[in-house]
Fold this protein.
Amino acid sequence: MNKTNKEYLYKLLKVASPSGFETPAQEITRSFLKGTCDDISSDINGNLIAFKRGSGEIKVMLVGHADEIGFMVNYIDDSGYLYVKPLGGFDVNLLPGLRLDILHEGKVLRGIIGKNAPHMSRGDADAPKLKMEDIWIDIGAKDKKDALKKVSIGDTITFHSEIEELSDDVIVSKATDNKVGVYIAAAVMKALAKTPLVANYYAVASVGEETTMKGARTSSYRIEPDIAIAVDVTFTSDTPGGDKRKFGEVSLGKGPVLALGAAVHPRLNQNLQDLAKKHKIPLQLEISPSYTGTDADAIHAQRSGVATVVLSIPNRYMHSPNEIINLNDLENAVKLLTEFIKSIDDKTDLSR
């Protein structure tokens, strides 16, 4: 990964963009893509759409979602503790003790997720599964009046997590789900900047995937793509207890993962597998028999239908403040999708 692309990726991973509040991340991508395409625009929902004009009629949309999981302040009690509702899905038992960034009027306030110490629990029974109302956020406030000087109902919250390089290729960070999809869509656009295309290429940073999928739905309605590629993350089964019988065989560093199933297009999937073999790009397979859990679910049945593909990056510890990915998987995804878009023309067979 070259220096410019890596700096862009790290900026994207660091910035807070909880679901529905993605503007700071979109501005970073807009800046990165400046000068690489024919047009960059936003829509009423906050999707960022970059466009490179081709010589043909066919339209290809590559989409990654810019939002990350987070919280919103729901209630402040008389003692100054905050209670929240989630933006996206969580394992609540993972949360106690974590540090958070509370976003209030353009400033960041640190908070700690509190829970009574185990010494204070009664009885010897195993701890019950927590609910969101069982935990609180401590901002060091003396009381409610003091807390209201620093925060408000509706303030958004994200994990506080630094990017660290565990090795030359492996990094840990919050929000690789799914800033890496946005990175790939943008990096492909940059890679194609000086390449004449037949296909009209749209790189989309969508919004709201973790909560409503509104971004993929409305951007695909506007673009009317013939082909859509949702780039997201997927679970690995290369950790202790990872059940390959359930999740298949997916490992970090062995290439991006192509989904096979009812919602995705078999002919395009075969084209991608053929290109991967031709260019010696590692590619893994996973099964998504029904819904994919990605933006593809909002796209494939749009209007009269879209030939849709899902390509994912292996991600350990998804929906946690410490997600782990391998940068080589990102680079191989960029190489594969760059070759794929170059190969598309008006004669591309989209029949099933």
